[in-house]
Amino acid sequence: MEKEIQFEDHFINRSNWIRASVLGANDGILSVASIAIGVAAAGSSKEVLVLASLAGLVAGVFAMAAGEYVSVSSQADIEAADLKREAKELEEMPEHEMRELAKIYQRRGLTEELSLQVAQQLHDHNALEAHARDELGINEIMKAQPFQAAFASGASFIAGGILPLLVSIFLPLDNMLYFQYGFTIIFLVILGYLSARGGGSHILSSVVRVTVWGTLAMIAAAFTGYLFGVNIN
């Protein structure tokens, strides 16, 4: 009896939710930490610092989720429009569409005769699915999923943003800039490591990338706080 083939779990299968989760967590950490650093640099009180950090977390969650939903929904709308047009073309000129699909397979290395056979069999099986995958580049793995992306972004923003908020709450106001920077770098290193492990990418490159850009964001926030800061006590 022939053994059933088990398909491998490739990293690309996780790309959608990893991208949204990493983006959300990174934004959560940096947004709230940068707000805290900017407010602390302006010479504000502990109460103002905590309130600003909390407001940044709450606003950021909804902004992140809404932005991701709108962005991925736009992608889904484009995919739906392309599929509708492709379905109409298949209905009106199926022979032309089959030969167009065969040309795609020829460019990938199949002979003309074999490419026509493959295109014919795929047309007989599910013509729209074949054109969606091989002509338009749309498949179940990469297909836009707005709700999944919005939830992943919002939830990960909370998970990331609550960390610098806790620093604002529990650590003293004196040297808050250094506390926030130090802990944020630690949080970003952990995030870079986890995202690299989850996506199968190079760990050091991922860690360096998030820490460098995170440092630049926090420097900009601190400079803004110092530049426009007023004491609010």
What does this structure look like?
- It is a single chain.
- The protein has 233 residues and is mostly helical.
- It has one domain (25-222).
- The chain is 80% helix and 0% strand.
- It is built from seven helices and no strands.
- It has helices spanning 15-41, 46-92, 94-107, 112-134, 146-170, 176-199, 203-228.
- α1 packs parallel to α5 (146-170), α1 (15-41) packs parallel to α7 and α2 packs antiparallel against α5 (146-170).
- The longest helix is centred in the N-terminal third of the chain and has 47 residues, at 46-92.
Mean pLDDT: 82
- What is the count of β-strands? 0
Global morphology: elongated
Query: How many distinct folded domains?
Result: 1
| Total count of helical runs of at least 4 residues | 7
- Major beta-sheet overview: none
Helix content: over 70%
Radius of gyration: 25 Å
Gap between N and C termini: 79 Å
Spans of at least 5 consecutive residues whose pLDDT stays below 50 are 7-14
In short:
This protein has 233 residues and is an all-alpha fold. It has one domain (25-222).
Features:
233 residues; mainly alpha; 80% helix
Map the helices and strands.
Layout: H1 15-41, H2 46-92, H3 94-107, H4 112-134, H5 146-170, H6 176-199, H7 203-228
